[in-house]
Write a structure and sequence with these properties.
InterPro entries: Peptidase_M74 (IPR005073), Zn_M74/Hedgehog-like (IPR009045). GO terms for molecular function: metal ion binding; metallopeptidase activity; serine-type endopeptidase activity. Keywords: Hydrolase, Metal-binding, Metalloprotease, Periplasm, Protease, Signal, Zinc. The chain is α+β, with helices and mostly antiparallel strands and 74 residues long. The chain has one domain. Helix content is 24%, strand content 14%. The protein contains one helix and four strands, in the order αββββ. The strands form two sheets. The chain has a two-stranded antiparallel sheet with strand order 1-2. A two-stranded antiparallel sheet has the order 3-4.
Length: 74
């Protein structure tokens, strides 16, 4: 079985590749609402999302050392 020119990446293959590259670059440069966030949100502390991929609103930074706790990793 031999491959014809279309299966080796002829003109159609090159056009498809160009289209795919342009489409993926468009989505990678699209702006998101998170780009405008510059400071933490001031609110009551609460968890948003799941433990695997969530956020904590209203949290404050803990000191690196204190009575009854220690930093495990940072």
């Amino acid at each position: 079985m031999t491959l014809d020119n279309g299966m080796r990446g002829g003109k159609v293959g090159k056009i498809y590749l160009l289209f795919a590259l342009l489409l993926t670059s468009f989505f990678s440069y699209a702006s998101t609402p998170w780009e405008t966030v510059s400071t933490p949100l001031v609110a009551d502390a609460r968890a948003v999302g799941s433990y695997a991929n969530g956020c904590l609103i209203g949290a404050v930074a803990l000191p690196l050392e204190g009575e009854g706790f220690q930093v495990v990793s940072c």
